Amino acid sequence: MTRGAGTMSNELQHLVDALARRLGRPVAVDDSAFRLLAYSSQSGEVDELRKAVVLTREVPPEGVAWLRGYELSKATRPVRLPANPELRAYPRIAIPVRCRGMHFGCLWLIEQDRAVGDPDLAVASSFADQAGEILFRERVLSDQQSARSGELLRDLISDEPETRRSAAARLTESGLFAARGAAVCIVVVAVPADGADLDEDDRLALSVSLDRAAQLLPARECLRMVRPTHGVLVTTEPALRRCPDLPMAVYGTASRLFGRAGKGHSVVVGVGPPAPALADVVSSYRGAAQAAQVADAVPFFRPVAEFGKLGVYGLLVGLAPDRLPGQLDSMVSRLLKADPVLFATAELFLDRAGDVRTVAEVLSVHRASIYQRLRRIEQVASVDLADGEQRLALHLGIKVARMRRLV
């Protein structure tokens, strides 16, 4: 968290404490996603919903479903909520926290022993307005810092070494990124079903996905930006170890957002190799982009692919199509033309290091059938499977076909 954001959070906490003392009742402020931002102390009995929120810093899913029914994001005046026996929640009042037409969340009063009278409600509403001003300033500051860090991240993954070194230095010197350990890049790609370019709504969905993922990371160990075709997030290797589900969380949010929009986008995520220094994170970015490319082309790697686990695909994805030997294509094309079953058998046989027994078990056929297919593969592809180099050539050809989406 930046110094400015921390100061504003303290200001919000002081505001909540002051209102709680004045009204003699518990007060809390949450954001538009029902995540707790500040809360006062409370003496006496505490309802179960408040306990859960204080312990986890967010409203549990069943509570969120209940609250969404009141459409609090559209409210402009206090909303009284009755007790909820199922959630063991006392009656409470939600006062919208707004500023300049923007909704930031709600200020909450719990009516545990006595109802909130109109005079106290007017006081609380004025405090909610002050909370809106605080959160508005924090939003502006956050947007400014995001824009600045996004510009520096763009330079950090440029092709110019001096530009990268300068960006890394400015990021660390300004406190926008704490280079604790190696840096790791994550790339999220949404591929439209019709092959068209991403539109503004698509890029917004990617931006929201990255923003939500950033909430799982320390503020100074996360950089993010959206490029014309994909989203980019940079964090530290220690932060990723503490949050190993981060790539899947990015995928989950993006796929849900695109699903709600009714778009048939294929969402994949690539994780690059660690870069020892922030100035070298371009190597992690390129690896993440290539991992995402493999995940999109080869179903086995979906939805999240790590560059270090791509195997031979890690070599092939870095080669331009015109640099791949044409001989490999001819062997594979003959197999595909003759019988796709031969192609599948050859791939499995080579993937399993020639273990005929395993191949037969996976395909649920007798080993004798596998031997017959192998002889047929040798005839069709003009390859000797007893020759190590020829086996390697066929294996590479099959993987090239996968990368080229020929199968």
UniProtKB/TrEMBL annotation:
Sequence ranges assigned to domain PucR C-terminal helix-turn-helix in this UniProt record: 342-399
Stretches that traverse the bilayer: none
Superkingdom, natural source: Bacteria
Domain CdaR GGDEF-like: 185-294
Pfam families, per database record: GGDEF_2, HTH_30
Record family assignment: Belongs to the CdaR family.
Name by which UniProt lists this protein: PucR C-terminal helix-turn-helix domain-containing protein
